[in-house]
Amino acid sequence: MAANLTIALAGNPNVGKSTIFNCLTGARQHVGNWPGKTVEKKEGVTDIAGQNLVVVDLPGIYSLNAFSPEEVITRDFILNEKPDVVVAVADASNLERSLYLVVQLLELKVPLVLALNMGDIAQARGIAIDPASISAQLGNIPVVETVSKHGAGIDALKQTVHQLVATPQSTIPVPVDYGEPVEAEITALQTLIEADPTLDQRYDARWLAVKLLEAEEDILAYLEAAGQRRLLDAAREAMQRIKAASGDDSETLIADRRYRFIGQALNGAVTRPSSALETGSDRIDRIITHRVWGLPIFILLMWVVFQFTANVSAPLLDWVDGVVGGPVTRWATAIFGALGLGGSWVESLAVDGVFAGVGGVLVFVPVLFFLYLAIAILEDSGYMARAAFIMDDFMRTLGLHGKSFLPLLVGFGCTVPAIYATRTLENDEDRRLTAFLTTFISCGARLPVYVLFGAAFFGAKAGVFVFSMYLAGGAAAVATGFILKSTVFKNKSVPPFIMEMPAYRAPTLKGVLLYVWKHTSQFLRKATTVILAASVVLWFLTAVPAGATLEQSLFGIISKALAPVFAPAGFDSWEATGALVTGFVAKEVIVSTLGQVYLGGDDAPAAETPTLGEDLAEIARSLGEAVVLTVQETINIVPRTVNVIPGVSAPEADFFGAGEADAEDTTELEAALNRTFTPLSAVAFGVFVVLYVPCMAAVAAIRQEFGARWALYQVTYSLGVAWLVAVVVYQGGRLLGLG
Amino acid sequence: MNLRRRVHEHIHRVPPHSIGGIVSLARVPPGQTVNLVHIHGGHRLRKRLADLGLNVGMPVRVIQNPGFGPMILGVKCDSRLALGRGMAEKIQVEHPQI
Q: Lower CB count within 10 Å: N or C terminus of chain A?
């Protein structure tokens, strides 16, 4: 068979391009990065009439102007890779704007199929579209109507692509008439380009002439480097003549003519009721983005997201923790015993190093699952754009763009995906600054530490302690934003806030689940290796020299050497320092390390080792219980939210009558903590935990996205800030007589 | 309630001399459709706005303008754009001739 044929999908953001991609490729897709870019590349395979075709989902863009990496990627892919068919996806409910990109694709003279997606929304608004007429106006390019969220029209789309591949028509491209004086200058430049064989072979002469008059920056730079001075000078003079003759800039005239071309193409093809000026979305927006109500609604929704990640995920988190730490570890020990390796270093490495490490990652899957579930719903429904709108004013005071709030929100779940979430931001400086701030947002892994110390030192006021730790993280992020804005990023201008507000729509189950799966699995792939490696290193430190107690091991020696550093902050015991060292791996490890150093490990053997059958039955039973508890916690979001209002106390669902009887074995550890910490040093310790380096995986993510230097800055800065604030808290507290 | 309405009216008060003349987009009250006359800004900005449907000579409908913070515009009939106030100040518009 001949070389694989390639279909490229191009279109604006929010037009359902990815849904079409999913419909075409199903599970046969691969997500990677474009070479040298942090822009996601999605590739898949589809089957059309028994033939496998490669489908490339190009990034969502508004234009081929080459301002953003996404636009450069799309343009270069179409120009250089020459896909066999480009499917341009347009939003039927927002056709005029959607076609702006389509016209630019037409000008590239690629074999084009136009998919009019989301016709159902257009129809609901009473907008009638005649695809045949649009096709005729756009040079007879094939036009297919699709409703991708129901999979409607996908077969027709495949059929059309098949026909276009089988019988490549030389569709007569309808050139946009740019009018005088622009057309005369295009012709003149075209003559110059055609006279130069190096250019004439590489580019379509008319296309390049238009790009020159649009002053396309990267093309100008390319020609400059290629020594095309004469052409560039000619273009500059042409632009000046156009401005002098018409009073407008050439790029304004070109955009204007493109929109007029679209207007003519749609004239007669689209009919709309005169009453359709205000849409249902506009009515919803009157409340959601209202200057007074918008913020409380936003805070309420964020609260619900927070409940989802912190409470609803907890039963499943406990379940995973129990399974990995209990039966799975026991099975591994039994297998090593059967192999005659019981008690050997191999067993220790596998159980204490590898399993503990993998367990530490797996425990986060429920947290991320629920976080992404909430985010997917907000994103799919169109709320996310509104949230950026509402937060823009506040983010601007930190030198950031409204969109930066999303990574910060993700940061409450886990810092690693938060750093990847900065990819949605347009410019690099924004991304760096936002990623830097996300590290101070208290992630889910830090929570167990506050919960332990809160219970140990503040009893009934534990909630206040936990909440203040979150506030401390938030305050550090805000302060860091101010500091960086006025120092490192002094010359950084906040990009103007321009954002499309997509129409509200009901999220689809499929879309939401795909989003959740994509992001959770991405985290698993990226975090597992780093945390695994770090766990093994940590295991090595605690196991060497052989036979030593924890205090005598390399780990103990290092912790003792570092401990005096924390004397001014009030917690200079080697145990506390050791726990912080292990916190580099992942912060929830701090709790288990404290357990190990104070209580000498949890090696209390069970009275009877359960059989495999009993283990499996218990795993299934506890899973069932965890699922029921998850439902219970989901229901409880309502009373917990209502109860925030002073004076209201709605009852919470409690399926097992468990109440607050969750104290178990932690009390012993709490007693041990009370012997070495004072309440004041516990606060200082908590503050240090919130602020210092999130974890190895986060540092690795920063290094991957922004380079080793930036990762080093983050580590140094956060350690410095954490130490300083902890010392200020402790010494300040002592001055106030709290010690 | 009364106070809120007064504040609202104050913010959206269009100076008498500018009726029919050129004003900044940031001053246009919600519900009105105006024509874009000029964009103060560099080449990049103008192109970026044009990509999203805001180009000289085009009609823009103001959907939300609370008087502070970003506003929401309707462009090209069905597209909704959120625009920062700073940006809106740089855009000159005029009421269409009736």
A: N
